[in-house]
Every structure is written in C-alpha cells, then in structure tokens.
Amino acid sequence: MAKQKKLTKSKDRKISGVCGGIAEYFDVDPTIIRIAWIVLTLFTGVVVGIVAYIICALVMPDA
C-alpha cells in the first residue's frame, strides 16, 4: 500500500513554509512555487494573495 501524502508546512522555510510544503506535496522545486505564488498574487490583487498565504500559514500543520 502506498504511503499517503499530507500537505504540511516545510522545514525549508523562507517565511512560514507554505510554498515549500506545497512544493514537497507536488514534488517540484520550491522556487517554482514561490515564483508562481508571487506572479499570481500580483495578477489577482496583492491583498488576495497575502490573505491566502496567511490563511494557509494558519491552517497547514507543521511537518
């Protein structure tokens, strides 16, 4: 039986580990996720991106 993946904050942290945790979950480079988050934040409205990041930081459990 395969090990079930869980979305958790990463220990590879720049701010709170949200982007690193997402990168570990999808098995991609954390830099790609960080750049994508910044680009999406700029295009969708800075407030929306920051609020989403804060919510993820509060909701996601530590590794």
What does this molecule look like?
- It is a single chain.
- With about 60 residues, the chain is an all-alpha fold.
- The chain contains 3 helices and no strands.
- It is globular, with a radius of gyration of 12 Å.
Précis, in short:
With 63 residues, the protein is mainly alpha-helical. The protein is built from three helices and no strands. It has a domain at 18-59.
Got a strand count?
0
> Oligomerization state of this entry?
single chain
Structural class: mainly alpha
> What is the molecular shape?
globular
Q: For the CA atoms, what is the radius of gyration? A: 12 Å
Low confidence ranges: none
**How many individual helices?**
3
The secondary-structure element order is HHH
- Beta-sheet strand percentage? under 5%
**Taking all residues together, what is the mean pLDDT?**
89
Distance between the termini: 22 Å
Specify the biggest β-sheet. none
Helix content percent band: 55-70%
Give a topology summary.
Layout: H1 18-26, H2 30-44, H3 46-59
List keywords for this structure.
mainly alpha, 63 residues, 3 helices
